[in-house]
Amino acid sequence: QRSETGAEAARRDEADGARGLDRVHHRLHEAQRRTLSELRSTGVIGDDAFHRVEEELDWAELNAEGMARDA
């Protein structure tokens, strides 16, 4: 069994950090969608506003996924 080099440890830490950030983004997107649905169901926003914001959330989520893949 060999010991981990500094570079290997740095890569592992970076990968762990990226996975953690992915989890945070996922929870954030879920919370935003829940809030959006609540606003619609309580009549604070209408269907048109709901769909516009939903589309923005879709794009933001796709962008975050793309950035995570590129990292």
Q: Helicity range of the residues?
A: over 70%
Our Rg estimate from Cα atoms comes to 18 Å
Elements, N to C (H/E): HH
Give a count of the beta strands, DSSP E runs of length 2 or more: 0
Please write out the topology:
Layout: H1 6-41, H2 47-70
Helix pairs in contact: 1-2
Can you offer a commentary on this structure?
The chain is mainly alpha-helical. The protein is 85% helix and 0% strand. It is built from two helices and no strands. α1 packs antiparallel against α2. The longest helix has 36 residues.
Characteristics:
single chain, 85% helix, mainly alpha, 71 residues
Task: Describe what is shown at a glance.
The protein has 71 residues and is mainly α. It contains 2 helices and no strands.
